[in-house]
Structures are given as structure tokens and as C-alpha cells.
């Protein structure tokens, strides 16, 4: 497996691990610390557990949105940073999918308490995940256009 994909996938599992594998120890430990702080303050593990059990209303009431709003941008920055530092400098515009994913997931989180999709609420876990896919698609389109025309 290519180093950049290994770093990226480890960061998907836990932000900061990709940085540690890239031997960027200060940033890696800082990201691990930030992951724990935001996760605990947002009550994210409980939200995930409740969402996986289909208890969306309970998940929404357990969510500390002021803290959880930090998570998408932090998470996708961590992914991009691990990916970027494991690649050569020729991968121009690789940040576009990460930026648009962070933006779209944040929008999904903002609307998660009020937006009904297919007649039901999806909550603070599932709706942001649904919003991830359009964000990634837009990011890849922008990356392709930037590579072609810039």
C-alpha cells in the first residue's frame, strides 16, 4: 500500500496517527489531544452509539453542538495533513476534496436537528455522513478543474 493511503486510513481511524507515522510527533500528539478533548466535550462517542441503535432523538439531545461543530474541520484537516506529508510535492490541489468534505459535513451537522430526508430525521451522525458524498464529489471536480486549467 502506498504511504499516503496508509497515513490517510490511519487518520480516518484516529486523527493524529497519520502524523505520528509521518514522524511529525508534536503535531501527532497535539491532534490526538484535540481529538480527545473535542470528542469528550461534544459527547461524540455516546452520539455515535445512540445513532447506531436508531435512537436519533436521544442522540440529538445528547449532542453538544458548540463542540461538535469543531470536529468536521479538525477531522478533515488531520486527514489532509497526514496525506499531504506522505506525498511528494507534485500533488497540487489535493486539498480540494478535504476542504469541500469538511464544509459539506459541517452543513449537514448544522441542519441535522431540523432536516428531514426521506421523511425522517437522520441526526448528528448520519446526516453529516450523507452530506459527505456531495462535498467529496464537488471537491474532486474542483481539483480536476484546477489541475487542468491552473
TrEMBL record:
Q: Where are the transmembrane segments?
A: 29-52, 64-83, 95-119, 125-146
Keywords annotated in UniProt: Membrane, Transmembrane, Transmembrane helix
Q: Under which name does UniProt file this protein?
A: Uncharacterized protein
- What is the native source organism of this protein? Fictibacillus terranigra
